[in-house]
Amino acid sequence: MKIMNDRRGISTVVGAVFFIIIFTTAISFVTYDMNLLNNFTDAFVTKSQTDADANHEQFSITKVTLDNNKFNITVQNSGNIPITIDRLWIQNKTDVTWGTSKYVINQMVYPGNSLTKIGQSLPLYAKSTQGYDIKLVTMRGNVKEFFVNSVSQQPVFLQLFALPNSSPNNFNTTLLLGVTNNMTNGGSLSNIQPNMVVTNMTGFGRATLISGPAPSFYPLLNVGNMAFFKWDYTITGTSGYKVNFKVSLKNGYLFNNASQNVFINTAGIYQPQINFTAQANQTGTTSSTGVMLGPGTSITPQSTGRIFVHVSGFTSQSKAGGGCITGIRYGTGSTPINGAALTGTSVGWKQSSTHPATNSTVPISQAVQVTGLILNTKYWIELSEAVIKSGTCTVNNVNWSVLES
């Protein structure tokens, strides 16, 4: 009997020990599981907040210069949260043996403020004769790319005009170059410098430079914007003398150029018309059918009745996920006011843009030709705008160039 009681006592102790082990294991597993769930939740919340902050970062490159053979870059924080410029990546586009380098910046810029002299303290030296591809990266991973002394990534839109391009002997002509930053990667162009090559084509004569280019360089050109350079020449020679002016950009894309012929013509004077206009920003629209955005620009054909039109700018949408449709229209009579019903003749293709974030901007750029216009008749040229889905579409920083060709 005593042996049986001892065995029962041992069984009870063993059972209690197993129960304690199982209970402790269960508690440990539940505690681990709860901690793992909490860690996952914290990580998810942190990642979501980080992504939201990254989407709200808004900054731009406002100035790039070379001071004492070092870059001096200025960044403007146009958003509502602080940003930290973390890294600078740079690649020499002229010297291919130079490679790609990374530099740590780690400087903060608060909303509404600017950060200057980025690059001045780095062990990095640059040459004004070479082109560079530079990327600034924030701590949250947003990137701004720009090109210094280099437009070699892809062709940019170049327009060269001669006014006048024909006249009797010993006349002055003005060469005007328009450069539009239509880079598809959104990069800004810095320190743009034109190269002019003058070549005698036929006859006997001479083109003498009076002044230019003015300006000698353009410091910074953002996507969708346009810069202008001007030269003045005196043309002398015999009747039929023709000279070719060809312009490219320093460190530019291969075969990316624009040219114009100028000649001496004693029979008469050819006077094509030209107009460059920076349109004032206008009130946006909520119309899905479209309205006129005027006033835009105008031209009065005098010689051919054929015009070339180029427009560039930015569209923005007040609603995330919405879109805008931008078109070009022309006509005669009274110039339509901002918000007026669609009128005139539509020309070219309507450019559609989608906007993933609230008030995000998308560059627009379009070139069209219009023929059959009546000489000595004034034509207005404007943008039309319509909304996709909902929200308000606004077009800003519009630049027009209109040339009778």
Describe this entry's structure for a reader.
With 405 residues, the chain is mainly beta. It has one helix spanning 2-56; strands at 59-67, 70-77, 83-92, 100-109, 114-118, 132-138, 143-148, 157-163, 166-167, 171-180, 188-192, 194-202, 205-214, 218-221, 226-237, 242-249, 257-264, 274-279, 291-292, 297-299, 307-317, 323-331, 345-354, 361-370, 379-388, 393-404. It is flat. 31% of the residues are buried. The mean pLDDT is 85.
List the helices and strands and how they pair.
Elements: H1 2-56, E1 59-67, E2 70-77, E3 83-92, E4 100-109, E5 114-118, E6 132-138, E7 143-148, E8 157-163, E9 166-167, E10 171-180, E11 188-192, E12 194-202, E13 205-214, E14 218-221, E15 226-237, E16 242-249, E17 257-264, E18 274-279, E19 291-292, E20 297-299, E21 307-317, E22 323-331, E23 345-354, E24 361-370, E25 379-388, E26 393-404
Parallel strand pairs: 7-11, 9-17
Antiparallel strand pairs: 1-2, 2-5, 3-4, 3-6, 6-7, 8-10, 10-15, 11-14, 12-16, 13-15, 16-17, 18-26, 19-25, 20-25, 21-24, 21-26, 22-23, 22-25
Could you list some keywords that capture this structure?
Immunoglobulin-like; five-stranded antiparallel β-sheet; 14% helix; flat; Jelly Rolls; 3 domains; 405 residues
